[in-house]
Structures are given as C-alpha cells and as structure tokens.
C-alpha cells in the first residue's frame, strides 16, 4: 500500500504540471521519507553534513537563503488543510515506485539530529522541490545530476544506473539456492554493509575478471597478459554485461578460492615458528577481515587484492566457454595447497624479509602473476598426462583381457 506524508508549508507554486516548489517548515519536516531514489546514504561524518548542521543550528532563520533545498519524488501530491500542508503519496520500491528523497539526505539527517538535540527550529524554512510521477530512470537521472556537493564514487553512479542489477539478481538466487547470505556494498555510505573492501561490489567484479581467460591470456597477442592492477569500467555496456553474465557461474568458485586461501593464512599465522611472529608481508594480525559471504571473518587484516593472483591462475583450467577442463572439486584444493606451499607463501615471506609490506604493490607485481600462471599450466599438463597414461593402461588391460578370452576360446 502507498504511504502518505504531510509537509507543513508557508506557500507553494506549480512550476509545471508535474513539479511543485514549496517553502517548508523544518521543525515538522518528515525525517522518515525513503531514500530509495538517492544514489548514496547520508554520512554524518562528512563535511557536507557538518556544514548543513552548523548552518541550521547557528542561524536557523537564515537557513532558507543559505541552502539549495531538498528534492523529492512522489507518486501524487495535493494541498490539504487550507493549503498549509502538502500531502505526498509515496510508492515503495516493492510497488514499482522510486519515490522519496532524490537529493537532500544529509539535510534531512541534519533536521533529525537538530531535533534530537532540542534546537529551536520553528523559524527555519527550506525549499522543497517535488517531482510527481517520475519513472525510476528519471529519478536516478536527477539524483546523479544533483549530487555534486561532494564527490560521488563511480560505484554509486554505476549502481544508480541499474548496472549492478544482474549481479544482485544472481546473488539473490544463490542465497535462496544455497542458504547463504552475502554482505555487499553497492553504493556510498550504504547502511548495513561492512566497510571492508572485500565486501565492495567492485571486489566481486575483480574476482570475475581474474577468471576471464579470454581477456587475460598470456599466450595471446594482447597487451593485457594478467589482470594485475586492473581498472574497472565506470559504465557497464551491454557487451560487458553479457561477458560478465557468462562469468557469473564462476563467482562461487572464486569466492571459495579466496575463502580457502584466508583459512590457510589464518592457520599459518596461528601456528608460527616463533610465537607472536608474523612472517607474511601485507598481513596485519592487529586487524580483522570480512569476506562477502557472511559466514567468513578472519583475525587478520589483508589487502583487498591479496587473493587475486591466486584466483587468476585458475583460469588456466578454463576453456574458451568458461567451462572447467577438469572437475573443479577434484583439483581445486590440491592445486591451492600446491601454490601456497611452493610459491605464494615463499613469496610473501621473501617480501616481508625485504621490507615490502604494502599489499597493493605486492599484488600488482607482474612476476608473481606470471609465476603462478606458469605453475598452473605445468600442473594442468601433468594432470592431463596422468589422465592419458591412465586411459592407456585401462585400454591395455581391456585389450589383454580380450586377447586372453580369444585364446582360451581357441583351446
């Protein structure tokens, strides 16, 4: 059911058939309007919020002239109580609406806090622009254009355009099918989402890109041999979405590789050769790390890209259609242990000894990406040779058995 909110006003005018501009009272302004159309949630620690709060509480009578106003979206709007209030009918997201605060989340938060601290706001006014009957696309377009006071990160803009919908839908299906819960931040200051970089939607994209053996192929003629230091697109085109959608079934495998690597590291630092010592570069035992799957948290801090070179090496086992050449469950654990024991652990130890502890520099080192990739190729070749030899042995046994039966029949 649509919800209604009333805004007390001094006056208003109809700017056009689908837009009303009014002078609203701050002290009674509804602070629970939905933020659905906004591209990020307000952050009380930001400079924008502090400036609005200070302006409102120090000289509330001048707030109207100093503030650019609030922009709202409503399904319907009408004047009530002798035109001293505007009644807003708001459709919620599950009703197909995109109504609420388009721009002004920090302002409404400042109203709420000022009321909580019992500031006298009876003289404060604010300009309110109400767009009526906007589509979701139009509301997001206005939100993108309006949020220019402080920088909006590219992730929030991509999310506002709806470019992450295919990822959200896939994760929702995965949650239902596998009874798991993901904690992913899709936009700036998103409440309920961890600030850990591993829980950022862009991290999920990086995991997928690492397994793109068609884009990152050292055996080809392309300049992009490995996804070290990859830059993500600020606009997901239809072609890019099609490619990422083809890679999506590999996301659970990438998440598993990352989770298992972290478990191995956790075990390593929990059982050091010298008590209290950590011999791995970029690992901080004073911090914690959360992974996107809400089941996993670890007692150490790690750079976001730590697992990427490991995950990228697995693309050797994929064909051009992103299908595993070998069954993933049959080789994944053994191969990870092989990489950790023979390459990655030694690499992190050597970097720590050399004093190189900055995680991003380590994960962007082309040499480790190359050595892990070559190791994966060697591992795969050995596996395939064993399979061929095993097949020949089975074939030989069958042939010998057949010959024996033929000779027995002749006797």
TrEMBL record:
- Where the record annotates domain Abortive phage infection protein C-terminal, the positions are 35-355
Pfam families (UniProt xref):
AIPR (PF10592)
Assigned keywords, A-Z: Plasmid
Which InterPro entries does the record associate with it?
AIPR_C (IPR018891)
Domain of life, per lineage? Bacteria
Q: What protein am I looking at?
A: AIPR family protein
